[in-house]
Amino acid sequence: MQKRVRLPFFIGVAGGTASGKSLVTKKIIDRLETTAGKRKQVISIHLDSFYKELNEESLRKAEAGEYDFDHPEAFDFDYLIKTLEKLDAGHSVQIPKYDPGLYARSGLITIQPADVIIVEGILVFYDDRIRDKFGMKLFVDTDADIRLARRVRRDVGQHNRPLSLVLQQYTRNVKPAFEEFCQPTKKWADVIIPRGGENDVAIDLLVQHIQDLLRTPRGSPDLEQDLARGASLEDTIESAKVAQAGRPH
Ligand SMILES: Nc1ncnc2c1ncn2[C@@H]1O[C@H](COP(=O)(O)OP(=O)(O)O)[C@@H](O)[C@H]1O
Ligand SMILES: Nc1ccn([C@@H]2O[C@H](COP(=O)(O)O)[C@@H](O)[C@H]2O)c(=O)n1
Description:
Bound molecules: adenosine-5'-diphosphate, ligand L45E5XJ5
Oligomer: single chain
Protein name: uridine/cytidine kinase
Number of domains: 2
InterPro entries: P-loop_NTPase (IPR027417), PRK/URK (IPR006083), Uridine_kinase-like (IPR000764)
GO molecular function, one term: uridine kinase activity
Organism: Diploscapter pachys
Structural class: alpha/beta
Catalytic activity: uridine + ATP = UMP + ADP + H(+); cytidine + ATP = CMP + ADP + H(+)
Strand content: 15-25%
Largest sheet: 5 strands, parallel
């Protein structure tokens, strides 16, 4: 029997820079929202929101293409786990909106609790507290040359960065950090998605699986899980009885 999923259902989407994490996330959300039997609310959170704020010296380094935005030290993982815990408890949260062009936070976004919460970013499987939150872990695996080409187009075209600095940042920080910190987290993935957002077969299969998980009857007995998340013993036993009563004899 398929195990009941606990809502919110957290999905992690990791992978190298410009591998297509955002596109995969968007396609999953669009398809879940339009096809889920009972309409489910799905939201996404980007790891960028949890970049530590830069002091003046770090900002100067960033502008010179020398700050390491790909090292785990660049992220406030404590802040991310607190945010996920609040959402898990059913609260809405405000998180920073991040502007890579400015190397800074540019406001706040309000995130409402949802049935499915997708967290995407290069290092979302790096910290075990965050990794353990995910009921499903996806790694988007796209050829490094393609990622570099997209990255150059994005940084030069959208962020107005000089090509020489983009290439310097890539060779000095982005590529080595990918190999040291991001690539090894592929081993935690439940599903590896080759070629990213253009892989519609993989995305359709995943959406189908997520829908199946969400459709699994709520109230099937999983006493330990319910109690662990703070449900009262009475409520838990009651929900188990309801599920039991609905089963064929
Ligand atoms: N399959 C694809 N074909 C063409 N361009 C793509 C494809 N996937 C992503 N892109 C483009 O590459 C860039 C990075 O994609 P994105 O999904 O933002 O990657 P990530 O979130 O991993 O950084 C974006 O400009 C996006 O439009
Ligand atoms: N100010 C910044 C912040 C981050 N980056 C780069 O973004 C990459 C992570 O985002 P993806 O959407 O590409 O996964 C990471 O490789 C950072 O180097 C940046 O260039 N500037």
